[in-house]
């Protein structure tokens, strides 16, 4: 049974990802007096935090399906988790030179790359469900996952604020629905 090793490594990386995300929120709080507030990266921060917790929950449910994993499966799970860490590291400013830009400028310059990492994480999760767990592609989770994958990639590509802000507003309830489906299935 090698699940404890899998869970430990993934938990370490997820712990760092949550720490990075929370540190970014502290930075946003600290620069509140000198930089204008922007709801878009904060909304993505909430989405990412929910995804991190959902991933952590899902990882801890793995022993119900299987207790042992091949090294390649372990690496794949770690890579998925690293995508969440990368998204957390990119999403909000953390350095003094980043803080000078302001939240909106930082997001448009660097933070939006977190959206690509989120999309890659979700593509990997989709593949894991279909290939690793033989889940049916014609199911509720798959119906929700397709826009969950496409929308962050679109938000990354569409650089005009009105488009990526609209996608963000649509994504918040979609993410809540996705997590509800994953927790009830």
Please specify the SSE layout and strand pairing.
Layout: H1 3-30, H2 39-60, H3 71-91, H4 96-99, H5 103-111, H6 113-132, H7 140-157, H8 161-184
Helix pairs in contact: 1-2, 1-3, 2-3, 2-8, 3-6, 6-7, 7-8
Description:
The radius of gyration is 17 Å and the shape is globular. Helices cover 79% and strands 0% of the residues. 29% of the residues are buried. It has helices at 3-30, 39-60, 71-91, 96-99, 103-111, 113-132, 140-157, 161-184. The chain has eight helices and no strands. α1 (3-30) runs parallel beside α3 and α2 packs parallel to α8. By secondary structure, it is mainly alpha-helical.
Describe, in short, the structure shown:
The protein has eight helices and no strands. With 185 residues, the protein is mainly α.
């Amino acid at each position: 049974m090698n699940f404890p090793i899998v869970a430990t490594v993934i938990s370490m990386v997820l712990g760092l990802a949550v720490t990075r995300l929370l540190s970014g929120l502290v930075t946003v709080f600290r620069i509140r007096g000198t930089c204008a507030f922007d709801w878009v990266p904060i909304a993505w921060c909430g989405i990412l935090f929910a995804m991190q917790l959902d991933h952590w929950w899902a990882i801890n449910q793995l022993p119900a399906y299987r207790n042992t994993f091949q090294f390649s499966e372990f690496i794949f799970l770690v890579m998925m988790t690293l995508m969440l860490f990368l998204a957390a590291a990119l999403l909000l400013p953390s350095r003094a030179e980043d803080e000078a830009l302001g939240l909106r400028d930082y997001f448009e310059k660097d933070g939006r790359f977190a959206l690509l990492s989120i999309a890659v994480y979700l593509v990997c999760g989709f593949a894991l469900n279909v290939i690793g767990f033989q889940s049916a592609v014609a199911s509720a989770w798959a119906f929700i996952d397709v826009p969950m994958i496409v929308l962050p990639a679109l938000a990354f590509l569409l650089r005009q604020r009105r488009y990526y802000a609209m996608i963000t507003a649509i994504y918040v309830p979609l993410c809540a629905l996705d997590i509800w489906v994953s927790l009830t299935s």
